Amino acid sequence: MKKVRLLSTLTFMPEIDFLVIGAGASGAAVSWRLALGGAKVVCLEQGGWVLPESAPSLTSSWEQARQRSHNPNPNVRMNKWDYPIDATNTPIQPSLYNAVGGSTIHWGAHFPRMKPSDFRVFSQDGIALDWPISYFELAEYFEINDQMMGVSGLAGDPAYPPRGAREFPPLPIGLGAKKIAEAYERMGYHWWPVDSAIINGQKGTRKGCNNCGPCDLGCPRGSRASVDLAYWPAAIEAGAQLITEATVTKIISDKNQVTGVSYRDAAGQQHHLTAKNVVLASNGIGTARLLLLSANEYFESGLANNSDQVGRNLMHHPTGLVTGIFDEYLDGFKGPFAVSIYSQEFYETDEARGFVRGYQAQTIRSDGPLGTASGGYTKPVKWGRNHHEDFYQQFGKTASITVTTEDLPNPENRVTLSSQVDRSGSQIPKLTYQVDDNAKKILEFGIKKNTEVLMEAGAREIITVPLVGSAGFHLMGTARMGEDPNNSVVDSVCRSHDLSNLWIVDGSVFVTAGALNPTSTIQAIALRAADAMLERIVLPAMDENSALLQQELRS
Amino acid sequence: MNAKLESLLEILIPESDGHPSAAQAVSISNLISDIANQHNYELIEKMLNSITPDLAELDIEAAETQIRNCEDAFPAEFAALLNAVYIAYYESPKVLKRISEKTGYNINPPQPDGYSLAQFDPELLHNVRAKRPFWKEAHGNS
Fold first, then answer.
1. Are A193 and A341 in contact (CB under 8 A)?
2. Hey, where are the domains in chain B?
3. ipTM associated with this complex
4. Which residue in A178, A220, A374 is closest to B83 by CB distance?
């Protein structure tokens, strides 16, 4: 894979046009686009580089790593780049990663786009709010992002507006998903092979997927996109500077403008950087936390928080899981665990069902031996005389379907500051969250429907998890966009209503959540915001060499 | 404590069908060390001390009853211990070898070799291809 320079300090001290906070999915995308446009970009990332060749899937203790050193919950994992999160007041535990690449370091790379209706919930259902932008305004940015990340999938899905061919054909779906697909066909339900940010063939120096399974542990082949591979080399080549192990502790502002940030390096030294613009890309928890930590005499309840919406409307997508146990061996541990097929048969509102909006059903493969025994997404195998028999009833013989629900915004579901502090003395974020009645009804309905699907597919036993407590991997809504400064934090191009040179480009800006994985949409929004940022600054004329380089990179 | 833990492991995962018992497959000292690193060992020790009879002296039904009582009284600690036992057991080469013999499971790490799988067959999309597009236009504020 392409080698990039690993920086821990600035190699120059430019007059920074855009100081980006966070090097994850959105921070990488916005940094690349801005640098490509000729802006001077510096990104501060609290974590470091995670080398693909360090993935535990190359070791015999890979299943243990999933539970411990690579646990998606930072409160369990507790590596040196993580900050604790007070999650005592929520049934859904946070799942995120702090490193160059952010949570794309450990994600499953299921890569759907939000749908046109997701942007118009108020107009359709009379609840929540409409977004100030539409699906179609994001369409060109979805395409750019797909090119950068590398996408496998198939055109022709009737659940979406028409789109062109993907760069790679769909990944193998495996025996379990095939059974489910055949059941969907017999039942007349929608299904389709998923779009995945996992390449089914060579892309530059990244190799095609070899179906190893545990994408969440990192991908030593570079098949599963993570933005440390998919964006950062190009961003750095375009001129962006990335400073690792640099934890921003405060954004500095006056009444109308941000002026820069304070950050702490790996040695604990405090630094200050000034910048013409600050771009927050620290995810739906980290961004709200930093805005609240940055309260000052002009913004006593948190930076850019005149609307009192910072930290509110936290959305996760409450997720249920239905697992079918089959008689035959399905090799369920083979293939990327999170991507095979999906169904949006029950995605849109049908008033007869007694709830608004709906869910996406995503087929999930199964675990290795330890994951099977210790429960994985289902329940631990029982101890005692029948342990081995019970183990073999499940091992390699399961297929699961998630119920990923619409999660409507609720101002009481929120990120606030805890009285506890991290190792440097900064207050940690506190999550307060409840699953609402609408989502509970969707979960109940979805679990019933998916039970029917798995029975039709031939499962002899069903195990259900009504709410997956570890599924806090989608972090949205805590600095939402809107045209009205009284009930939103940023405008339609992600610029703060209160501070004209502060921008937010991560999942915080979501107005509603849809019922599907948000990363593709987060990145498209970040790319669109970057173009809006570039329109608002005056860049110096490029010399001939720089112009040629930009032209080459754009092509 | 080691003897008590060993007796407990014999009941949790007994020897069967070519599989070693947990007591045979797991190093007790490593297990104790692991539990001490990951959990509050004092609470787990308290739980183990609540099992007063010698499990090795009991018949299997009586021993399982004792353990179930312990599980009911200390659910969190028992779950932590059981998970640590499962981690140690299912990473044991002897156990993985037996699983491989029974199922063909490849005991090598998932990488670098991965697995071979059949590519997606678009012919599967027979009925769903015939569906009319059903995404909503969704007009509204913009």
1. yes
2. 2-103
3. 0.94
4. A374
